Every structure is written in structure tokens, then in C-alpha cells.
Amino acid sequence: MNRPVSANGVGSHDPRAQGSPTGRASNGGEPADGDPLTHLAGLPPQIFEVQRADAGVILRTGELTLRVNSDGSTWRVRKQWRDVDRGVVFEAADEADVARFVLALVENDIRRAHGLGRADRTLALSEDGVAQPGVGLLLTEEPGSGYRLSRRHHGARWFFANDLDAARFSTVAGIPLPQIHDALRGRTRP
Fold first, then answer.
1. What's the structural domain count of the chain?
2. Burial of 81 per CB tally in 10 Å (0-12, 13-18, 19+)
3. Can you say how many angstroms the Cα of residue 22 is from the centroid of all Cα atoms in its chain?
4. Torsional sign, CA 40, 43, 47, 52
């Protein structure tokens, strides 16, 4: 039996979390006017302090710092919360998925900056307390290293340091970035 839990931790930061940056999205369905991270960082009002670095881009908001970089085949997000390095918390092959992950983390901060209410996304928990992903996605624990989220039919795979971030991401994984941006501005709800 699954128990519901609020995903409103989006925008607040999960204390259980452990643990070429200017390329374009590879999935063709994303903004053509710039890379998704630049597009994300430019959302008004700008809640991020953005710094380009040799190894990637650094996004800061409040006590959260995200360091995003790529080795050419894999994008990684390293999280620092309250000056404590949480390590790599997300990996993906597509830069647009990095933007989706960042948006899922700070969605309510962005909505609040626009004078909007919190997005209410309810997540289910399994009997053993593991957050469950959305329909069509499979979450697999990899002992000692985190969780793999994958599409059941399309083969996309993402790495997460914790199950809650994976389940939150699953709520936006299939939504085109422009639709997410509109929702964050209060125009629609993804």
C-alpha cells in the first residue's frame, strides 16, 4: 500500500540528500534561443545568482548552491546546502533534464517570487518509506550510490542521490520546458 506525502519539499531542501556546460539540449524539443540552463537562469524574477566557470555553471539561491558541469556525455549536478557539500545529486545525458531537475528543486521559490501559491504535488510512499515515481517510470535503488530512475519504454535513465528528488523529477520529466516556464510564471499548470 502506498502512503501519500506532499512533494512541497520542492523549493525547500531535503535534509536526506547525500551526496561542456554551454551545450544545447539534445532532444530538439527545447528552446532554440539558448541552452536550457541559460533559459532557466533568465526566468524573471531572477532568483539565481549565476556564475559561469571553466568547469560549468554555478547557480546560487539562498543557502543552496548547485554546480552543474558536463564531461561531454553526462551532465552532473553537485549540491551544497548551508555550506555542506552533498555531493553529486543528479546525473543525466540531456541538459534539458538538468534544467527540469533544477526547476523541480526550486519550483516553489520561483512561484513565490511571482506572487503565486505553492504547487501541490503529492508523492506516494511505499510501505518501506521510499518515494514512488510517476506513471511509466521505474525507480531502482543502487546500494551505496543512490537511485536510478528510468522510463519503462523509452530507455531514458537518470541518477539521483535520493528517492524524493527522483520522485519530484518524475512529475516534470515528460513536460516540455516552455510549458514548465509558463506554469512557473502562473500562466498554466504543468
1. 1
2. middle
3. 18
4. positive
Q: Where are the alpha helices (DSSP H) in 86-153?
A: 95-113
Q: What is the pLDDT of residue 104?
A: 86
Domain containing 59: what range? 3-184
Look at the alpha carbons of 21, 23, 27, 30 in this order and tell me if their dihedral is positive or negative.
positive
What's the full length of the chain, in residues? 190
Bridge partners (DSSP) of residue 67 are: 58, 78
pLDDT at 146: 93
pLDDT score for 158: 94
**Is 66 a member of any domain?**
yes
Coil/strand/helix, residue 149: strand
The low-confidence residues of the chain, meaning pLDDT below 50, are: 1-33
What confidence score (pLDDT) does residue 185 get? 67
